[in-house]
């Protein structure tokens, strides 16, 4: 079912109780590069020159910024994506998957003839991943593609992206002036220079979510804790993710500080888990949950994504979250860890009863037809 603006709605809306007639139609607007991702997971070891290695699993799906767009959409947020798409078969597949399967608004995306789709091959080995990518710059800049950004509750951007922050008034500044919260992360600096001007852009950001390595490098600190304190002096909400060690956060607006552990899961593929964490944190922020609940919810969503092959395909929906909580409550395990889970995630008990049986759940691999693995708990 579509509303007047053409954005399809999933069967559970986590912000339903907060919407008013004056609110923007969109919850999230994102811009970036969409890759066709070919993800090989469960490799016994990295391939050596002149050898062949077989993977346990394969997934084919839209990647890059699509990981984030799919994650927010599956969690019930009305999501719009601006990106360049090729008119080749890969571009057709990515566009069709995002628009028809994931119900993401592509009104500000465009197809370009003669420009081929960016492609990434991701290989997951021993709880980490390596990638090989190929592509060319988009035929038009972000400002040309986006124009005036649509009104939305939030935008998500890369802090190091010059198109987002390079000028005195970019599309991100326009979006913020229109009322959008600006969520930002930052990628690995291939030159390892970690320029200070990138952190200076935090004055134009509301929530910053780097991982521990990037946070320590940019702030010149030696621990994730020191890094999150340094960042909290620059941005209203700072969250530093630290892999299996969990995440640390400070909300300077409320004075809240939190440290949450990661979910204990059998990790299959880390591709896209960071985007899922960010999407879930955005949901909790827009719903105005306490900081610890926001971070705990984000750790759950990222943990569920780690259990599946396939980048954007692994992003959980509310149906998956409802299934997980229902199984946990029904579990008779009385050990300390399970008791802790039931305490930490008790806030879901107020949400899950409102999640319909038909709520969005994770998809299977698309080009590959299905993931070549049994269902995981």
TrEMBL record:
The keyword Transcription does not apply. Signal peptide: none annotated. This is Sugar/nucleoside kinase (Ribokinase family). Keywords: Kinase, Transferase. It comes from the Bacteria. One of its GO terms (molecular function) is kinase activity. Residues 173-314 form the Carbohydrate kinase PfkB domain. Pfam families: PfkB. The keyword tRNA processing does not apply.
């Amino acid at each position: 079912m579509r509303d007047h603006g053409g954005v399809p709605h999933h069967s559970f809306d986590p912000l339903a109780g907060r919407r008013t007639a004056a609110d923007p139609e969109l919850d999230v607007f994102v811009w970036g590069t969409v890759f066709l991702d070919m993800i090989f997971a469960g490799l016994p070891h990295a391939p050596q020159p002149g050898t062949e290695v077989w993977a346990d699993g394969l997934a084919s799906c839209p990647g890059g910024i699509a990981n984030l767009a799919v994650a927010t959409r599956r969690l019930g947020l009305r999501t719009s994506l601006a990106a360049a798409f090729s008119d080749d078969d890969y571009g057709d597949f990515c566009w069709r998957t995002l628009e028809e399967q994931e119900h993401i608004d592509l009104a500000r995306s465009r197809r370009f003839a003669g420009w081929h789709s960016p492609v990434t091959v991701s290989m997951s080995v021993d709880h980490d991943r390596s990638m090989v990518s190929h592509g060319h710059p988009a035929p038009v800049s972000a400002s040309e593609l986006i124009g005036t950004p649509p009104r939305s509750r939030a935008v998500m951007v890369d802090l190091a992206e010059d198109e987002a922050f390079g000028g005195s008034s970019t599309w991100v500044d326009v979006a913020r002036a229109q009322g959008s919260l600006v969520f930002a992360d930052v990628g690995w600096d291939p030159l390892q220079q970690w320029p200070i001007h990138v952190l200076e852009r935090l004055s134009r950001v509301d929530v910053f979510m780097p991982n521990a390595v990037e946070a320590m490098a940019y702030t010149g600190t030696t621990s994730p804790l020191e890094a999150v304190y340094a960042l909290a002096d620059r941005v209203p909400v700072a969250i530093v993710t630290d892999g299996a060690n969990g995440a640390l956060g400070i909300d300077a607006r409320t004075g809240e500080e939190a440290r949450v552990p990661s979910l204990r899961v059998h990790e299959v593929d880390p591709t896209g888990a960071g985007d899922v964490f960010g999407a879930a944190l955005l949901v909790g922020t827009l719903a105005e949950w306490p900081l610890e609940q926001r971070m705990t919810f984000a750790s759950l969503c990222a943990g569920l994504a780690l259990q599946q092959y396939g980048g954007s395909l692994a992003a959980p929906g509310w149906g998956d979250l409802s299934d997980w909580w229902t199984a946990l409550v029904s579990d008779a395990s009385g050990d300390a860890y399970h008791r802790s889970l039931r305490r930490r995630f008790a806030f879901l008990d107020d949400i899950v009863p409102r999640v319909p049986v038909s709520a969005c759940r994770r998809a299977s691999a698309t080009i590959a037809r299905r993931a070549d693995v049994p269902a995981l708990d």
